[in-house]
TrEMBL record, chain A:
Pfam families: Na_H_Exchanger (PF00999), NEXCaM_BD (PF16644). This is Sodium/hydrogen exchanger. Belongs to the monovalent cation:proton antiporter 1 (CPA1) transporter (TC 2.A.36) family. Residues 775-785 have a biased composition (Acidic residues). NCBIfam families: b_cpa1. Residues 700-712 have a biased composition (Basic residues). Gene3D superfamilies: 6.10.140.1330, 6.10.250.2020. The chain crosses the membrane at residues 76-96, 103-126, 132-155, 167-194, 206-224, 233-255, 275-296, 317-341, 361-382, 389-410, 456-476.
Automatic annotation (TrEMBL), chain B:
It comes from Astyanax mexicanus (Blind cave fish). It is found in: Cell membrane; Cytoplasm; Nucleus. This is Calcineurin B homologous protein 1. GO terms for molecular function: calcium ion binding. GO terms for biological process: protein transport. The keyword Metal-binding applies. The gene is CHP1. PROSITE patterns: EF_HAND_1, EF_HAND_2. One of its GO terms (cellular component) is cytoplasm.
Amino acid sequence: MGFLSSVKPVCIVLISFAVLALLSFGANAEDSPKPTTTKPPAKPTEHGPIYTAPPQPLPEPEKSYLPLFTLNYPRVQIPFEITLWVLLASFAKIGFHVYHKITIWVPETCLLISIGLIVGAIMHSVHEQPPAVLTSSVFFLYMLPPIVLDSAYFMPTQPFFENVGTVLWFSIVGTLWNSIGVGICLYGVCQIPALGVQDINLQENLLFASIISAVDPVAVLAVFEDVNINEQLYIVAFGESLFNDAVTVVLYNLFNHVAELPVVDAADVFLGVLRFFLVGLGGMLFGLVFGFVAAFTTRFTRKVREIEPLFIFMYSYLAYLLAELLSISSIMAIVTCALTMKYYVEENVSQRSCTTIRHVIKMLGTVSETLIFFFLGVVTITTDHEWNWGYILFTILFAQIWRGLGIVVLTQIINPFRTIPFNFKDQFGLSYGGLRGAITFALAYTLPNTIIRKKLFITATIAIIIFTVFIQGISIRPIIELMNVRKTNWKLGTINVEIHTRLMEHITAGVEDLCGQWSHHSLKDKFMRFNNRFIRKILIRDNRPESSIVALYKKLELQNAMEVLDTISGDISAAPSLISMHEEKASNKSSFKPKRTFLASDLTAMHEILSKNMYKIRERTMSYTNKHTLPNDSRAREILVRRHTSIRRSLRARSFQGSESARSQKYFSLPLGQSLDTGYATESIRLNADGDPALELHNRSVRPKPRPRSKQPRFSTTRARLDPLQELHSTVNMEDEVRAEESSHRPSRQSSSSSNSRSRAPLQRHSSLGTPSVGEDDPEGDEQQLESPPPAWTPEPPDRGSGGPRNPLLRRAQWKPQDK
Amino acid sequence: MGSRASSLLREEDIEEIKKETGFSHSQITRLYSRFHSLDKGENGALSREDFQRIPELAINPLGDRIINAFFPEGEDQVNFRGFMRTLAHFRPVEDNEKNKDPTAEPLNSRNNKLLFAFRLYDLDRDDKISRDELLQVLRMMVGVNISDEQLGSIADRTIQEADTNGDMSISFSEFIKVLEKVDVEQKMSIRFLH
């Protein structure tokens, strides 16, 4: 049944885009002017036909009626065809996700190429030509910038800068190594008379080699993610693919120029090297300048929020075009522009603009890449190829060998300089994951026609792309899993081991972060200080914290509301219980239970639960590496929300006990009587550095209960579960002088009560599961909140020992007791 | 490098810390500049707020407990000595360490590392991880989709596996025994840069 239901939408999709395809071909074919009902000379229909009376006498005056329906294809031809092709490619993308298991085993690029092949076959049978999309100017001016902007914008900056040396090393030196190595080897192969390619000289070989050394390993990172490869590998692969493109394009232009020279001497080589550096550094400089200008501009856009995203796009595109104008590396320009711009701009613009920017960039990048791979498939069938077994097979062979060799050698050289060296598994992943992608194809297609063997090169390029994408792309997942599995212990470790090792990993990761362990730490510190003192003042609009409290609070509440809406669909209580257990009510109270026997199936279920649900460590880069989706920081948010909730809950617990805590509280954000730096702390968590400006929490919980209660509250377990997701309480920034905050407290307090009411509703829905006293507490408490000055909260009460009926989740004793 | 910062750290302090923790001179200076950069109040001691300003700790599920581990019982300020003493637990174990003080165990021994982890569970310092304490930590480490019954079962199984004397809680010796095959030295070590 399930299969049938998934077949239906697939059929619909296939049929609809077959129709679309045919329509576009039909449109293509009808280039000639269509028969119109207007008399010549024809004018567009909206102006109505214009009659010029023919000068010859007519036998009878012919009365032409107003044409009701006219068809004017040439007018809309170009945009119409573009739209149809884009739609076709996008339908293909929808089609893949109908049956989601496909995308796990087969990377999306494979699927796109396959669809392109099918469409190409159709077109070929109808004797159609694909549109001339892949001319040099169209590709380099319109299709490449979005892809590069997408990669650059979503690059996690902090890990990137920590590894910038490795990234540049691999991309620059690696690409050079690959190009030169493969080029020379191919030249050697060309000397073999049996292959019949003796007319390809060294320059052309080098040119070809530079084209095929541009790798696109990002497609493979999704596989790595599941196998817990360290984040260093991520960022290096990610960054490498980006800078790789820049280097390849530069090399391509260089070799292109050189290929036209009849004789190459030492001066040319030297100039070539010099030009290389000039181009790269010049591009970076351009990008920096434009990035800063863009950031500066957004400082003043408060009144024109609607066009804020436009500035980002225009400035980066301008950087790209100007760099193209001056023949310096446009990719480097747009990359550095995006990197510098991102941090400052995302602070200046409104939340909506920020979301818009991210979505549009992602959309443009995805569309562009989809189209390129699609066309790859189409072009494969429709061009006339020149196939040369020997040359092509040797190309593939050498490309693989040199990449593997290159990675190994380069890693050996750079490992001593790295904080965390790459082991064999990492190196294998890097080299085997070197799929060729969009850039390779486009560059091959745009080879100048002066090269005699252009067709052979195109064929060879397409062959290597298809080989790597299909064979390596599909096989890498099983191989990596095999390698990973072999390393871990086959014997199922005990639950203890699993939990405690994860605990230790978290601890170690936390302490590492605490020490700021990465190698360029002092440099980063200096830069951050410089940044804070000078740059931010110039580029960021509102650098003073107090005026941004309310705005930040609104941002936070908005996210909270959206989260409530997202998760309200009952996925919480619907988690199936995988473990069969005895019927034990109130299972989390007593610690003296009869000894339970656990079946083996229970154990495997437990292992499965733990491995799937325990938080992985250090999710900094993991969320950025799936190229086809926006970064997902829900886990980080989950953790943050729960921490705040637990702090807040312990506040409430404390205030239940301490009736004497209702001392005068003008500033409810301050702890009782203690000095400013004890008790609960303020934190300004800027996740901006990780590229996520949306979550900025100032932690000072504001939901204390006004009335001290004598009895212990019985929080139901479901409430505890609901809390993290639904109750993000208001927070107040404590960085300023306390006095200055008082005026701003009022709006935040009122909003906090509204948040209470909002989050109360779902609570009451579930309150049937919990004890009724909880449901009563809240409304009373909240109404009182605005009237009586809320008592301050004090830190967690001292632990009373492990006995007693207190709810364990209440006893989140995170702080040592303050009472002396 | 914070020359301003290192001038506040005297040579004899550095020597003492070196003896106590085993860090090298350059490591100590480097960590001091880190300490100094965290210390926004510039009063020579870190409070909990200073730690909470580190964004990565905020998204670490055990962030609060890790911070708590730095502060000795009942205090809310930690000076540089205390900071280093805690960090010393994470120093990698070197085989060729000549033991300057044969009676005292070095801070980064396997035992002490395990004790550090144990103390993250056992907040009331009664030398036992009770079911409740275990549940608390489990709840922090696991996503929100796990029901409490499931978590309770996992906790029960954990205690059952480890508990040898039948008191329904995990003592430190039981903890050590359970983790005897795990490479604790490697998992709880950080490469401190020079």
